[in-house]
Amino acid sequence: MNEQTLIWTAILGMALVTMACRLGGYLLVSRHPPRAWVKSALNAVPGAVLTALITPALSAGPAEALAAAVTLAAAWRLPPLVAIAMGAATVVLLRYILPG
Amino acid sequence: MTSPADNQDPLSPLKRVWRHTRPACWRDFARGAVHMMPMSMAAAPFGIMVGVLAARLDWGLSDILLMSATVFAGAAQFTALGMWPQSSGDAAAAISGIIGITALINLRHLLMGAAIAPYIRPLPWRVKGAFLFTMADENWAIAMTAARRKALSGAYLMGTTLPFYVNWLIWTALGHILGRGFGHPERWGLDFIFVAVFLTMITGFYKAERRALPLLASAGTALAVHLLAPGGWSVIAGAVAGTAAGVLRPAGQDLTEDE
After folding, report:
1. What span, in angstroms and rounded, lies between the C-alpha atoms of B176 and B97?
2. What is the pLDDT of residue A65?
3. What is the pTM of this model?
4. How many other C-beta atoms can be found within 10 angstroms of the C-beta atom of residue B219?
5. Cα–Cα nearest to A27, from B5, B114, B49
């Protein structure tokens, strides 16, 4: 498979599963609301996925780990865009200072 | 069309439509669009960064626009681009992983669709179909808030949805054009922006949920799998572990039992 076919396959697959989720809830809505534990697990999904996705990048080195700490601290109080800029600035600075 | 014979003034149906229906429709549409304005602006940096990531992977502008138009889910698009295989060696497995993760990330739409179903059921399919196809956390939240106050009109629902949809396409396209301009992304910390964006999103999820366990379970599992078996599997393992940990405290449980 060449790169273009891969891209189209991925987009098609992603679009289909996303559409199924978007329409499915409306179409399959039953008279009974979902069980509490199902709701609880589904609410945890976005955070769990994003955390799993970035964890390998955080273990790449001290610059990334420290910049992540700065970003988290900033995101707690400041708007996301400011926190993102501060994290990126920290990683640039630390990569310049730290060896390797 | 009404024939002139039905009516004294051949233009009167049109006038009636213009005088009553259209302005009311547009007012509702505009109200929905205005309510979504802060959300549209908040989506801009994320759209730009999706575009930048796609450009760095050498995707064409049409590719990322196709993705934004048909998938239309920021977190899933970020994840897909972040997991995109560097080599074509294990590409098939990587693509399956990306589609699986997309399903997992967007599973919450099942709940959202179920929650809003009673409010949109009376609307015609062309309206609720368009809404469901473009349902995101943002327009869903705004529509749910409005629906609790008074019955949702189709025009209001489209006002929360259509400009927000076009907004996403514009920002991802702009990001792609910008992304082409950066020669050495590491020098500007652009590779870290991906991580930083997700960290701010995770902070947002934590603030809404107040549950650290799923996040810690996900991070611990992902790290262990990453160290033992590098590759895309750490994402799936961490996501499944975090979701499983999410079962442990049922939603709606008394918040005083926290920690």
Report:
1. 24
2. 94
3. 0.73
4. 22
5. B114
Residue with tokens 């681009």: B81
Given a contact cutoff of 8 angstroms between Cβ atoms, the answer to whether B16 and B139 are in contact is: no
Question: For an interface test with A, which of B243, B249, B257, B258 has the most A Cβ atoms less than 10 Å from its Cβ?
Answer: B243
Q: Are the C-beta atoms of residues B182 and B52 closer than 8 Å to each other?
A: yes
The more confidently predicted of residues B208 and A20 is A20
Q: What is the pLDDT of residues B83-110, one digit of tens each?
A: 898 877 788 888 999 999 899 888 878 8
Residue with tokens 């902070």: B203
- Residues B76/B50, Cβ–Cβ less than 8 Å: no
Distances (CA, A) of B24 to B19, B31, B139, B150, B231: 9, 11, 21, 15, 55
Take residue A66 and report the two structure tokens written for it.
């420290």
Measured between beta carbons, which residues in chain A are less than 8 angstroms from residue B204?
Answer: 75, 80
CB-based contact B195 A54, cutoff 8 Å: yes
Mutation test of the interface with chain B: which of A45, A49, A95, choosing the one with the most B Cβ atoms within 10 A? A49
- The better pLDDT of the pair B2, A15 is held by A15
Lowest mean pLDDT among B50-64, B127-141, B241-255: B241-255
The 10s digit of each residue's pLDDT in B223-246 is 999 999 776 678 888 988 998 998
For the beta carbon of residue B181, count every other beta carbon within 10 angstroms: 8
- Nearest beta carbon to residue A56 from set B66, B214, B226: B226
> Average pLDDT in the A7-34 region?
87
The terminus-to-terminus CA distance of chain A in angstroms comes to 37
ipTM metric? 0.81
* Beta carbons of B251 and A39 less than 8 Å apart: yes
B88 contacts A72? CB cut-off 8 A = no
Q: Which residues of A25-55 are buried (b: 16+ CB within 10 A; e: fewer)?
A: bbeebeeeebeeebbbbbbbbbbbbbbbbbb
Cα–Cα distance measured from residue B106 to residue B88, given in angstroms and rounded to the nearest whole number: 26
Evaluate whether B73 touches B105 at the Cβ level (below 8 Å): yes
% of chain B residues with pLDDT over 90: 39
